[in-house]
Structures are given as structure tokens and as C-alpha cells.
Amino acid sequence: MLPDGLRPAIVITGASNGIGLAMARAAAGSQPIVLIGRSQERLEAIAREVEERGSEAFVLNLDLIAAGAASRVKDYLDDNRLVCDVLVNSAGHGIQGLAAAQPLADQLDMIDLNARLLVELTLALLPAMVGRRRGGVINMGSIAGLVPGPHMAVYYATKSFVSSFSQALHEELRNTGVTVTCVVPGPVETDFLSGRGIKDLRVFSYLPDLTADEVAASAWRGFRRGKRMVVPGLASKAAALLTWLVPTGLILPKVASVQKRK
Q1: DSSP 33
Q2: Quick check: is 206 catalytic?
Q3: pLDDT at 190
Q4: What is d(CA 71, CA 73) in angstroms, rounded to the nearest whole number?
Q5: N or C, where is the chain less crowded by C-beta within 10 Å?
Q6: Catalytic residue selected from 76, 155, 156, 206
Q7: Mean pLDDT over all residues of the chain?
Q8: Each residue of 146-197: pLDDT tens digit?
Q9: What are the DSSP E strand ranges found in 14-130?
Q10: Which of 87, 78, 85, 82 is nearest to 36 (CA)?
């Protein structure tokens, strides 16, 4: 039970576009939703859409790689008399190219957003969920996290981290009433891709695009069923199976090939 005046909410990072936006749309209609991102204009437009779908919406314009971002999120929840019932970590980005040829600062920022912030926010909000014995976390991983990724080495490594961290937490929280689900999609039609030219990679010739709405629907369905991992789409499931069956040494040259531009 919550103290009087406190309400459970769904907290979504990366909510201004892509999968985060789709997760907000799919969740709308029940609890309040806290939308976190870096575009005030986009967040406000999404908030209106969420409210039309039946959920009260709250907007937090925040650069998640800034120092103290997790504390800012907690303070915002406290100020609005909300508690995090479900945390959706969908903020993230990728950089394509040889690791040694890319700016180091950009790659470290990617680690901060894709991995460090995800851990910080999860562990800041998780203890209260355990105390209430309800709720959970949805972490947006990637099929890229199942193998090393030449030409996107740091991005693949961050998604491998997300997968390992999420699955370990899932087991640690068994029988607590709290679920941690890692969502592992293949290529998705989002600004994450088109904004950085990643859409031109050869991998899109082998794996069909998923829509963000398809990923969100699978994510929520799997989370509600208490699943440890969700792999949306048949093609992604087949690709995931191959990564588990084929030795890494044989997979690496193929991954390096498909991560290059067409």
C-alpha cells in the first residue's frame, strides 16, 4: 500500500521518439506516465497524445548523461507525489565505424547513456519497488548485445552489458513481486537509425525492420508475463538462435561485413 497522496507511475526514458515513444503510447490508459527526454516540444506533444489515450502525463526535459540525472528523476517524482511502478529504460544511441577512428568522447558518452545511466536509474528506483513487492523494469537491449560487433564495437558492448545486467537482476528478484525484462529487438525503424546513417548498413538487407510499435507491444506483453527476455519478431528470434548455436569465431567476420555501409 502507498501512503495517502502517492500514486504509482510508469517512467519512460528516451520518450521523445522511437521505441520510448511507442512504449508510452502502448502503456497509456492506466497509470500516470512520466516522459523523459531532451526535446521539450516533442515531449509536450507526446504528453497530449498520452492524455488523450487516458493517462495523466508528466514531462521532464533532462539530459540523461548529465551529472546527477538519476537524482533529478527521483526528485521530480517526489515533487509530483509519484512513485515509480515501472521503469522503462529506452534511451540510447549508437555510433558506426571503426572504434579507433571515432571520437573517444562520443563513445564514452554512449557508454554513459546506454549503460551507466541505465544502471544508476535502475538501482535508484528498484529498492522501493522491492519494498512494495510490485512493479519492475523494462530495459531496452538489442540483438546486437548477443555477439561482439565489429564496426559498432562500443555500441554492441553496451547492449551486451544491458542484457547481462538485466538477466542477473531478473534472477536476483525472483519471488519478490518485481520483474526485470530485457527486450532484444533486431533493426527498428527509428530516428536512432536514420539520424546517423545506420539505415545504410548491410544488416538491413538480412534482417527486416521492425516497427517501434511492434517492439513496444512485444515488450509490454512479455513484461506482464514476467519474462526474463523478449525477442520481438521471427527474424530476430532466428538470428538470436544462430548467435547461441554458432561459435563466435565464425560469426565475427559476418557481423563485421553486415555492419559496413552498403
Answers
A1: E
A2: no
A3: 60
A4: 5
A5: N
A6: 155
A7: 89
A8: 989 898 999 999 999 999 999 999 999 999 999 999 999 987 766 554 444 4
A9: 33-37, 57-61, 82-89
A10: 87
